[in-house]
């Protein structure tokens, strides 16, 4: 019984530590992949993202059907900020904080 109790105690301690470290590694990996994706932007994607930096804003509006914006949303660089549209099909899109910081530090990525 003592060994079983000890095994349960160790697993109760080890599991949260494993979960924490796993999340940190996953977060680091996602950030690394995101930075790599920002270095492979198409000219149209650069134009859309340049607006955020030039206007010093975290929100830009675009049509819902804009393929460039949908791709940036799919890879997690921007996210739709609201479910309510302006002018029927124009939605606001916010840039992700990690992408904002990276582009502010590396503006040459958008050239």
Description:
- The protein has 111 residues and is an alpha+beta fold.
- The chain is 60% helix and 13% strand.
- The protein has a three-stranded antiparallel sheet.
- It starts with a helix and ends in a 6-residue tail after the last helix.
- The model has no long low-confidence stretch (mean pLDDT 93).
Global shape: elongated
State the assembly state of the protein chains. Answer: single chain
- Structural class of the secondary structure composition? alpha+beta
How many individual β-strands? 3
Looking across the biggest beta sheet, what order are the strands in? Answer: 1-3-2
The biggest sheet amounts to: 3 strands, antiparallel
Distance between the termini: 66 Å
Average of per-residue pLDDT values: 93
Count of runs of 4 or more consecutive helical residues:
4
Radius of gyration: 20 Å
Order of helices and strands: HHEHEEH
Beta-strand content estimate? 5-15%
What's the SSE blueprint?
Layout: H1 2-38, H2 43-55, E1 59-63, H3 67-74, E2 78-80, E3 90-95, H4 97-105
Helix pairs in contact: 1-4
What is this entry, summarized?
This protein is an alpha+beta fold and 111 residues long. Helix content is 60%, strand content 13%.
Core attributes:
single chain; 111 residues; alpha+beta; three-stranded antiparallel beta sheet; 4 helices; 3 strands
